[in-house]
Amino acid sequence: MQRIAILGLGRFGTTLAKSLGKSDVEVIAIDRNPNLVTAVKDDVALAVRLDSTDEEALLSQDVQNCDVCVVAIGENFEGALLTTATLKKIGAKRIICRAQTTTHAEIFQSIGADDIVQPEIETGNSLARRLANPQFQDLIELAEGYSLIDIRCPVEFRGKTLSQLQLRTKYQVNLVALKRTVTVQKDGELIQTLRITSVPKPDDVMQPDDVLVLVGSHESLERLPRG
Predict the structure, then answer these.
(1) CA–CA separation, 217 vs 143, rounded Å?
(2) Would you state the pLDDT for residue 169?
(3) Residue of higher predicted confidence among 118 and 124
């Protein structure tokens, strides 16, 4: 099981900790504010009140052996910087830092952060893309310039097989999964349930209510048919 430490339980850190806690991930949530620690203790494997700039305190929780350490401190840049330096000093395997500005991101990288996230900027960009492309039901940033989206089956895709659509050739996107509502019998009753096909077949025929989970560059995804 992957073990992830979240250092800083503001809105971003708390959301991340709770979301990971619902997955098959062992989460250690850390903050110096006892109220914030208490708020997540039922959602994670371990919630600890400590100073994340304190080397001995981090070592006492074996943080250096976590698969990933996320420095989610937002408002206190000095604290985030010292936390990152301390994690580097104790030999943390992988450090991801939340940065509020491009300058902060560059500083984190200069002291050894392995990856940087800028949620305010990324959220704004994602919202702009969703507003500009209302056919996208959901959008997740994967890497710079690439996203994963859920899209309702466009009209011109309906009734065609995946092999006929030639998504890679025509649109330069990859189909990751197919979501389809199906009717099944349960306890003697017919009910509707969502079936997710993680490896769609070339002869699968697209239906009007299907949702396609696609990965591609922003430019390629935006070229997909609308409606």
Answers:
(1) 9
(2) 92
(3) 118
Cα–Cα distance measured from residue 131 to residue 135, given in angstroms and rounded to the nearest whole number: 9
Q: Strand runs (DSSP E) across the chain, as ranges? A: 2-7, 25-31, 46-49, 68-71, 95-98, 115-117, 136-143, 146-152, 173-186, 189-197, 211-217
3-class secondary-structure state, position 75: coil
> Span 60-80, mean pLDDT?
94
pLDDT of residue 123: 67
- The answer to whether 37 and 47 are in contact (CB under 8 A) is yes
Q: Which residues contact 158 (CB under 8 A, 6 or more apart)?
A: 206, 207, 208
Mean predicted confidence (pLDDT) in 178-206: 81
3-state secondary structure of 36: helix
Q: State the Cα–Cα distance between residues 194 and 183, nearest whole angstrom.
A: 9
> What is the pairing mode between strands 146-152 and 136-143?
antiparallel
Of residues 129 and 55, more confidence is placed in 55
Tens-place pLDDT, residues 3-12:
999 999 998 8
Q: How far, CA to CA in Å, does 24 sit from each of 1, 18, 20, 21?
A: 7, 12, 8, 7
